[in-house]
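Lab notebook, entry 261. We have the chain sequence and a SMILES string for zinc ion, and the next step in the workflow is to get a structural model of the bound complex before anyone spends time on docking refinements. Request logged below.

Task: model protein plus zinc ion, output structure tokens.
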Amino acid sequence: MPKPPALDGAALLRWVELELPEPPWSEAEPFLGFVYLDPQAGLSAKGGRAGDPSQVERPSLTVRLPIGVPGRVLDDDEVARRGLPASPSWLSIYGPQPPARGPWRTDPGLRGRFHPQYPDDLQVLVHDGEPRRSGKRTEVCWVRVDAVVDADRALYEGALLSQPHQLVTVKAGDRVRFLGRPGGQHPLYVTPEYLAERDGWEIQPCPSCGMKECLDPPSVMARTRFPDAGNDVPVMFTAHCAVCGPPHAQVLQRRDAARGG
Ligand SMILES: [Zn+2]
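Result returned:
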């Protein structure tokens, strides 16, 4: 028998049906509920017996998610056909809700990374740039995602929830942008300066962790390595992976140089 699908944050602010093992009703009917974020208890669904329309606005049962029982999300057509509201009026009791249908919740690069009870919170590698230049270690911090900046690049934005221990360029509460699929172990915090230069470079990933992004803009990395070169940026250079360290290295090559042969 296939493992039942566990409803995750992708179900947030949607109607779901769950097959509860011991529902408090005798009819052979699933639980119908609306998924919301309880500020204290996290991801939850509120509703009742599917065949009882009074449960839609006056739910009798609260289920904390995720839960290991079979369940499904109702699509828009079914919600309309069954006469369910887009969202029930009791929802306002639980305060402001996260954005509806945030596309990051279903990004295959991010799915499974979110906190099970707080469906927009995930861990991101944050930094002050290359440790070699900044003298600061990278840290892994929680970020609450709330916006897509560039879906093609998997570039997202959110608020930094935790205070880094020793970093000086980012602090709790800051708006931060991160790449969802940088290779390596975690999504990666990026600066506007880095993004501005990124398209001009090919980066051969670290053979150890697979990271295909860097922490500093390539021109800054070049100055760190070749301080006497002035503003001449080399067409190609290698850099030890900022996460793995030596001997693992990335290779950076300027696209304009690559095109010229
Ligand atoms: Zn690496």
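Notes for the group: Residues 106-260 form one domain. Worth checking against the assay data. The two ends are 56 Å apart (CA to CA).
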